[in-house]
Amino acid sequence: MKQKLAIAVAFLNNPELLILDEPFNGLDPISIEAVKKILRDFREEGGTVFISSHILSELEDLCDEVVLINQGRIIAEGNLKDLTSKSSLKEFFFKKVKNGSSDFL
Q1: Which tens digits make up the pLDDT trace of 35-87?
Q2: 72-81: long-range contacts at Cβ-Cβ below 8 A with a sequence spacing of 24 or more?
Q3: 51 beta partners
Q4: How far, CA to CA in Å, does 76 sit from each of 45, 47, 60, 68?
Q5: Domain boundaries defined on the chain
Q6: Pick from 69, 65, 73, 72: nearest CA to 93
Q7: Which of 4, 14, 62, 67 is the most exposed place for a label (fewest CB within 10 A)?
């Protein structure tokens, strides 16, 4: 409930920009889909959303642009569809991390 309340509060002053940290943390699947719809609608109305999340699969149908960070370093950035044309975002992330270091897990 705290997470739902925090997201609701973020919309109180009709922002143009939302910066969300782990917005799906602690939410059940139905609530995740509801939040995703709210964020999509917000974006379609001209709003901008920055999301920091470890749940890459939840970002795939929300994001246009992504920046992937591992151990404080940017390992990839760009248009989501371009980066994931051959794999999921999670698979792309692991491939980038594995290619850059042998101790990724």
Answers
A1: 999 999 999 999 999 999 988 888 888 999 999 999 899 999 999 999 998 89
A2: 75/100
A3: 20
A4: 28, 24, 15, 5
A5: 1-53, 64-105
A6: 69
A7: 14
Q: Hey, what are 18's tokens?
A: 């939302």
In the predicted structure, residue 105 carries a pLDDT above the cut 80? no
User: What is the model's pTM?
Assistant: 0.76
Q: In the numeric block, which tokens belong to residue 20?
A: 């969300």
| Cβ atoms 85, 76 nearer than 8 A | no
Which one has a higher pLDDT value, 103 or 29? 29
- HEC string of 20-57 equals EECCCCCCCHHHHHHHHHHHHHHHHCCCEEEEECCCHH
Name 58's Cβ contacts closer than 8 Å, sequence gap at least 6.
24, 32, 36
Whether 104 has a pLDDT exceeding 70, the answer reads no
Residue 76, SS3 per DSSP:
strand
d(CA 89, CA 48): 21
Give the list of residues 6+ apart from residue 47 with CB closer than 8 angstroms, or none: 15, 16, 17, 18
